[in-house]
Design goal:
Elements (H helix, E strand, L loop, with lengths): L1 E6 L4 H11 L7 E7 L5 H8 L4 E3 L8 H13 L5 E4 L8 H6 L4 E5 L11 H8 L3 E8 L9 E8 L6 H24 L3 E4 L2 E4 L11
Parallel strand pairs: 1-2, 1-4, 2-3, 4-5
Antiparallel strand pairs: 5-6, 6-7, 8-9
Helix pairs in contact: 1-6
The structure holds 5-O-phosphono-beta-D-ribofuranosylamine (GRF).
């Protein structure tokens, strides 16, 4: 099972996935390539350090969305990617891209969807005043963070939290959840019927909220 990981930034989730693979925790899952739309992304350095091939498709160079999608598909195709993992990839992917992978595209989001989609999940949760925040791994559809939910982890909001503090605690859970979901996918333990996703075995579905 070959994963292609798409990144735009620091890549702490990528690092968690790479570390899990190194420990043998992805089972038959393998990180085949890391692709960034941002040439200077720290995530690319993390991939190189782990000896994983990298690709760059710069959205500032490839401006047309359909052409950008095609370029992503071509770059991932070079590495025989079966599943696509969006790990802090800050672009929407279109129908052509999703079709090319038969819907085998997943994303991680720093909020308990369907609450607080978009760019600033943790900030929105804080501003809204929720007491329980969290993170979600979901299938990707053409919307913004709207695809079927695979797994979630809850994170308590503490008195006095600012965005950075809450985001940091959410990321701790992201780094646990994402590798666990990828392991379940690699094992073939994730199935989907409409919006309902079934996972057999353990996948850290909930989380600690105290
Ligand atoms: C994560 O918080 C993820 O939920 C969101 O983007 C952030 C990426 O962080 N989609 P990193 O690059 O993995 O550190």
């Amino acid at each position: 099972m070959r994963f292609g990981v798409l990144v735009s930034g620091s890549g702490s989730n990528l690092q968690a996935i790479l570390d899990a693979e190194k420990r043998g925790e992805l089972g038959p899952g393998k990180i085949a390539v890391v692709l960034s739309n941002v040439p200077s992304a720290l995530a690319l350095e993390r991939a190189a350090r782990a000896g994983v091939p990298t690709e760059i498709v710069d959205h500032k160079v490839v401006r047309d969305r359909a052409v950008f999608d095609q370029a992503l598909v071509a770059a991932l195709g070079k590495h025989d990617v079966d599943w696509v993992v969006l790990a802090g990839f800050m672009r929407l992917v279109g129908a052509g891209f999703l079709q090319a992978f038969g819907g085998r595209v997943v994303n991680i989001h720093p909020a308990l969807l369907p609450a607080f989609p978009g760019m600033h999940g943790a900030r929105q949760a804080l501003e809204y005043g929720v007491r329980i925040a969290g993170c979600t791994v979901h299938f990707v559809d053409e919307g913004c963070d709207t695809g079927p939910i695979i797994a979630q982890r809850a994170v308590a909001v503490h008195e006095g939290d600012d965005e950075a503090a809450l985001q940091a605690r959410i990321q701790v859970e992201e780094h646990r959840l994402f590798p666990a979901v990828l392991r379940a996918i690699a094992d073939g333990r994730v199935s989907r019927q409409g919006r309902r996703v079934a996972i057999t075995g353990d996948v850290l579905r909930f989380g600690h909220v105290d």
